[in-house]
């Protein structure tokens, strides 16, 4: 069976100067502070790929797939990986500090203020609307990811099974992800080296 | 105090390595340990802490920071955060280095291509859970689908979408539709 690449190459894109450590810190800090309602990695996708163009979309999705497979929280894994890729150890440290330190201070402040805020029911209503709109970020990124998957039965089946098992049937991730991951990687490997 | 810090680290450092696919993988175990085994928080306090983390910006797993803060104030918050984040940050740093040493190796491409459909399935499953848990039907669902369509075809500023979502909800609330 022939080998085929599953997506377009990004070779023709103009080179974009690498960010400085403080640019990285503030970018990750901004994402840490603005993403809510889940799906922080989709906010990172928007900043790193769509706005800044520091990393090609293909490479971002590759990294995201690996970071989901590794132990650790997706966002900090991506922060380390992308930070290291762009600026070495300084980049990794700046990116992690940005996504963890400030948001963790803010969450404690919010917890302190929460008792007061929760007396206003309108806060909750507004937050509900914003949370609904926030679904758009992971949703749109998920659609883009699915469009970059090779359109042959096995990869499409792996995606569907993962989706159904985790999303619909709520099976434990700790079993589903390794099984689907190993099966899918093994299949790709067999495709490459027959026999 | 020192003993509390030590037991926070003893709980979260090992759990750090089980956060595969995100912090929700360990949620049940954290709850069991924090509420059932250590009695640091009551069941209600735990639910409150988790709800606050859902409403706050930043990684969802920051509820662990709040647990540390409840248990031992600022030093506890720092210990819990460091305990849950730092071990896997270090691990990922070295794996990233290892990965770039073998760039474009065939086994590496098998990994990347093979994990892609799993990753897409996981992201979409997360979306499904978020989508079905939205309160305020059908407005919430309409807002979610509408803003997804906008964002997908056009690079819309997400803050405008969030503000629009909040405004629609407030308006609907005003007219007592929600």
Report the total helices of chain B. Answer: 7
How many beta-strand runs of chain B?
A: 0
Counting DSSP E segments of at least 2 residues, the number of strands of chain A comes to: 0
Oligomer: heterodimer
Helix/strand/pairing class of chain B, anyone?
A: mainly alpha
Strand content of chain B: under 5%
Topology summary:
The complex is a heterodimer of chains A (195) and B (178).
Chain A lengths: L20 H14 L5 H12 L5 H13 L4 H44 L3 H14 L1 H12 L5 H16 L4 H20 L3
Helix pairs in contact in A: 1-2, 1-4, 2-6, 3-4, 7-8
Chain B lengths: L1 H15 L10 H11 L5 H13 L7 H39 L4 H27 L6 H15 L4 H17 L4
Helix pairs in contact in B: 1-4, 6-7
Give a quick rundown of the structure.
With 195 residues, chain A is mainly α. Chain A contains eight helices and no strands. Chain A is 74% helix and 0% strand.
Give your account of this protein's structure.
Chain A has eight helices and no strands. Chain A is mainly α and 195 residues long. Chain A has two domains: 147 residues, no CATH class; 47 residues. In chain A, helix 1 packs across helix 2. With 178 residues, chain B is an all-alpha fold. Chain B is flat. The mean pLDDT of chain B is 88. Chains A and B meet through helix 1, helix 2, helix 3, helix 4 and helix 5 of A and helix 3, helix 4, helix 5, helix 6 and helix 7 of B.
Any key phrases for this structure?
A: 195 residues, mainly alpha, 2 domains, 0% strand, B: mainly alpha
């Amino acid at each position: 069976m022939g080998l085929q690449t599953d997506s377009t190459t990004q070779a023709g894109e103009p080179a974009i100067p690498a960010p400085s450590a403080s640019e990285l810190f503030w970018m990750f800090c901004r994402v840490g502070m603005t993403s809510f309602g889940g799906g922080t990695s989709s906010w990172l996708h928007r900043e790193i790929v769509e706005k800044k163009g520091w990393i090609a979309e293909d490479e971002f999705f590759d990294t995201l797939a690996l970071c989901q497979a590794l132990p650790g929280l997706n966002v900090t894994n991506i922060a380390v990986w992308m930070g290291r890729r762009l600026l070495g150890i300084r980049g990794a440290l700046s990116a992690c500090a940005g996504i963890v330190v400030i948001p963790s201070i803010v969450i404690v402040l919010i917890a302190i203020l929460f008792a007061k805020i929760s007396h206003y029911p309108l806060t909750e209503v507004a937050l509900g609307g914003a949370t609904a709109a926030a679904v758009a970020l992971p949703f749109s990124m998920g659609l883009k990811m699915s469009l970059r998957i090779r359109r042959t039965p096995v990869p499409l089946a792996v995606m569907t099974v993962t989706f159904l098992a985790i999303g619909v049937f709520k099976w434990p991730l700790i079993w589903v992800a390794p099984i689907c991951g190993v099966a899918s990687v093994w299949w790709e490997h067999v495709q490459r080296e027959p026999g | 105090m020192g003993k509390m810090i030590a037991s926070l680290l003893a709980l979260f450092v090992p759990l750090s390595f089980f956060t595969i696919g995100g912090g929700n993988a360990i949620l049940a175990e954290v709850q069991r340990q924090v509420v059932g085994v250590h009695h640091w928080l009551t069941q209600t306090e735990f639910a409150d802490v988790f709800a606050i983390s859902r409403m706050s910006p930043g990684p969802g797993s920051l509820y662990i920071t709040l647990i540390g803060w409840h248990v031992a104030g600022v030093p506890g918050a720092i210990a819990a955060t460091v305990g849950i984040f730092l071990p896997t940050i270090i691990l990922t740093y070295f794996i990233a280095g290892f990965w770039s040493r073998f760039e474009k190796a065939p086994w590496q491409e098998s990994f990347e291509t093979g994990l892609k459909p799993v990753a897409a399935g996981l992201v979409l499953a997360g979306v499904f859970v978020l989508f079905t848990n939205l309160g305020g039907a059908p407005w919430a669902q309409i807002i979610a689908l509408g803003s997804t369509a906008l964002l997908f075809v056009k690079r819309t500023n997400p803050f405008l979408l969030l503000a629009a979502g909040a405004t629609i909800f407030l308006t609907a609330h005003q007219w007592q539709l929600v």
